[in-house]
Every structure is written in structure tokens, then in C-alpha cells.
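Example record

One chain of 644 residues, shown exactly as stored in the release files.
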Amino acid sequence: MIADIFGLIPLVSLGILFLIFKQIDKCWRTAILSAAVVWGSVVALSTEILSLFKLVTFEWVFGLWLVADILWLIIYLKLNSVKPDLRSNDHSQLSSFLLWLLGGVSLIFAAVGLIAIVSPPNNWDSMTYHMSRVAHWMQNRSVEHYPTSYVPQLYHPPGAEFAIMHFQIISGGDRFANLIQWLSMVGSAIAVSLIAKQLGANLRGQVFAAVFAATLPMGILQGSSTQNDYAVCFWVVCFVSCGLAGMSAGITLSNTLKIGASLGMALLTKTTAYIFALPFILWFLIVGIKRFHQKMLPPILMIAAVTLILNIGHFWRNYDLFGYAIGAPQDFTKEYKIEIFTLPTFLSNIIRNLAMHTGTSISKINGLIVAVVKLLHKILGILPNDPRITWPPGQVYALSTPSFNENNATNPIHFGLIFATILLISNNPKLRQISIVILYFTATISTFLLLCLLLKFQPWHSRHHLTTFVLFAPMFGLTLSQLSNYKIANYIVAILIFMSLPWIFNNKFRPLLGESNIFNSSRNELYFTSRPKIEFPYYQAVDFVKSQNCTNIGLSFRTKNSWEYPLWVLFQQPGKPAPRIEHISTIDPVVEQKLNSEPYKSFIPCAIIYQSTKDDKQGKEMVVKNQTYVQKFSLEPLSVFLKK
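Predicted C-alpha cells for this chain:
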């Protein structure tokens, strides 16, 4: 309980920062974004600095946030004594209907937040790399690259996991790990309401934008996980809002720093941020240079410098090991990178990505849509599962249907509303004449087109679409609020609230309802919700190793997607020091170099947990570092080898 209270210290810091900026900005939404930018920057920079000296420990991280809380509090008290006026510049009166909508959004946030706290991380990516890399960093007291059989633990941008690690170090567990995505979900809804205001929407349109973002099925499912799609989404919309503020208010030091920091945090969180941010970067650059001419040079250099400072640690680690700062090893780039650039392949990706959100629960309708997609591909002269633009190769094209799985959930209702919004804009001469609206609309659509141009189509691509959907929320709010028939607009937005309920209660991995809901299952059981068949073997393997009083545990995984993180959790014992867990073999020859550097070179395990593919069966003995290990336990998919 005390550890959980300690875990709230970083959130206290975020709250005080909000109060500080509320005094300065006089707008609570701007204050929230400003506080988040400073908070995220502190997480990133402090992690890199502490890591240089291998000081990523409880004492230093706890001390960091304690000092930060005290410092922020002193600043707030001084500002409060000088500027006691706490009034906001948001003076508009909310109608009873808008209050009802905000109440519905608040209930959505509360329910998703409850799930995030009660349930541990348990989706596939979290078990293989999001949470596993956090465990390794904490053990190593550093975020330096380490030997691992799953290379994405190393090369993927680490921004979201940095924040997770701070909570985990202070609280002593992963109770608050899902909060990063939840905070991003809440922050994104607030940010898009502010963007709607910046585009000229009235209060009604701003609330509508927040409802659109908050009710996205993919967003609701991801808001209680440790995926990072919502985290990168928040930093992108934060960057866009700061950029719009810069175009409105002109060049200021404060806003220049916020633009650079939010862009830097986006790039530090997920590589797709380069795609989402590029259209807006070009827009802001062109407008800025056209308006301010040579005066734009210092802000541009400052934004670039701040962005680089936040990312240089990760860039250097990747360059030092792999030879390049951004990207993935060759074996992994084939999963993402388009192999051929032609008009037919580009149109194929657009068609399939759009069709992804048209699936229904009615098979006849789905069959008709698939037939149309295949007909269009026949006209284009390309297969709908062309391996040059599709991953994984060899799959038969199928339409995504509404799902409660955060890996492939779609947003069919919101997708239809986006097309309705586009039609309304095209038929609204007033909106078509507002340049900022058209340019924002163009930039948002460009994020989707760039995604189709650069990335192979994947069954779980709807995760990447989340940011584009959220970016479209201000357009929806602005357009719908201008309908002459208020009742139709109100009904549409109210329906979004009610239609979100199934995704709140029936999350496939973290359900609130059903026999195996998050309240009826133990925390350890919930780690295996999506793979219940491996729960018993994992328990048995860990119990066997514990019975040997082994403190140095080696991991030898021959598969790329091994569930590593549950082992870290199951080996923890109250009142006992955690064992040292290291990979003793890797699949990637470049990462294998790390095995020959300290402290990994001198690591001698007393037990090895082995996991192989179906075609790669290890014998009864293995030799590691001139030591012979004999198999003493085996239960699919794990085997345990002990030193002979």
C-alpha cells in the first residue's frame, strides 16, 4: 500500500505543473498540455542522465520526483502570491446537454482508468517487449542496449517505457504501468477540443470533438494497456496544438520550446510519429517562413535542437549497435517497409486500409465488401495480398470485423462519420473558405496517405490509424456543430457515447463483465488472459527453478515472440532479492556482440530457461560458456536446464 502511494509522486508533480501553467496561461486546457510537455521532458532527460552513471535506482528516481515536487510547489506558491487571479479565459456557459456529454466522457475515462489500475499489462507486445525492456533496464540500472533474443526490445523508441519505468521503480510493481496510455487517452481528448477551438469551433464543437476522440473503440481498448499507440497520438496532437498556437500568437520562446519538446517526445515514443508529424511540420514551416521570413530561422533551429536533445540518447544507442540511428534491423524492416512504389500498390494500400473499418457482423455485407475490394484489385492488376506490400506474407485477404481485441479493433461508426464530415465540408461554402480549416484537413488526410505509401498493410494496421482518427476529431466537432438541425447533431454525438459501452465492458484481455473478469481473477492469472495454455507451464518452470535456489537465470529463446515479462513477475518473491535474469543467446548476430561485453560476458547462469520453435528441438544437454547444462524440467513450451 505504501509503495502504491509512492507511485503517485510523479502524478503529484504533473498536478502541480498544471497549477503553475494555469496561473500563466489562464486556460486550463493549454495548461494541461504545457504541464504534460514539461513532465514528459523531465522523464526523458532524467532517464538519460541517470542512465549514463547507472543510477536508474529507487533512491535516485524517488529523490528526483521528490525534489521536483518541492521545486514545483515553491514556484506555484510564488506565482500564486503574485498572481492570485485564477479565472480562466474559457468563459462560455455549458448547456445541460453539453454537461451530459462531458459526464458521459468522464464515465468512459473513469471506467477505462479503473481497468488500467486493476489489470496488469497483458497484451502480446507488452509481454514480449514493452514491459520486458523495462525489467532489463531496472536490473541494469541503465537503458543501454543489452543482449536479447527479441531485438525490438532495443531499437524501438523508448519514450512510453521510460515513463512506465519511473512508476515501476517507485511503486515496486506494474500497478501504474497502464496509466501512461490512459493519461494519453484523456490528454488527447482535451487536446483535440483545444484544436477545435483553434480552428474556430464554438464550445459545442469543442465538446463534440472530445466525444469523438473519447469514444473510439480502438482508443478505449488501448487506454488501459501498455501499447504505445495512444501515447504517440497524444504527443502528436500536442505538437499540432502548439504549432497552431504558434501560428496564431507568433514567435515566442515558450511556444517554440513546447513545439520542440512535444515533437521530440512523439519521435521518442514511436517511429510512426515521423509519418504523422511530417504533414504538419511542412505546413507550419511554410506558413512560418512566409509570415516571418528570416525571423523563423532561430525558432526552427531551437525546435530542431530540443527534438534532437530528447532523442539523441536513443539515436546514439541504435547507431552504436546497429550502425543507424532510426529504423530496424533487416529481418524486421521487411515486416513494415514497402518493397515497391507504384500507383497500383499505393492505391491497393489505400483501398485495404479504408476497407478495414467497413467490416460488420453481417457476413453477407462483408462478403460484398470483399468482392468489391478484389474487383478493384483486379482492375489495378495486383493481388490484394501481394507480399511486397503485405505482412505477414501468404495470408488470404479477409475483412476485419468489429472486435474487442486492441490489436485489430476497428472504428466503423467513426469511419462513417468521417466520410459524412467530408461531405458536409464540401457542401459548406463557409468552411471551404477558411484556409486554416482546409489546411488542417489536408494535413490530417495526408497522415493516412503517407501511412499507406510507406508501410505494408497488416491485419493490425487499425492500431496505426488511431492517431489519424483522433486528429480528425476537431474537424468532426467543427462541422457537426454548424448543422442547422441541432437535434440531429445532438443525437449523433449521444449515440457515440452509448455505442462505446460494449468496448468498455468487453475488452478481450481486460473484461469488466463475464466469468473471467478482472475482478474475479488474480493479478498473476491476468497476465495470461490471451494465452491461458502457457500459464501452467510458466508457473511450473518458475517453481522448479526457485526450488533450486538459483539466483542467476539464463534465458535461451529461439523464437522472436517469446513471452518474457511474466517470468520476471513470477520470479519476484516478497522479502527476497530478485534473481538476475539475462539472455545467454540471441537470434540477431549484431546483438550477439553484447554477449561478449561486460557484465554479460562474465554472467554464468545456474539455470537456463529454454524455449524453442516446433522445428528446433534442443537436446537433453547444452554447453554455454564452457559449462554443460542438463535438461531437468520440460513442459511445452518451456524447458529448464541446470548446470551439470
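Notes: The longest helix spans residues 297-322.
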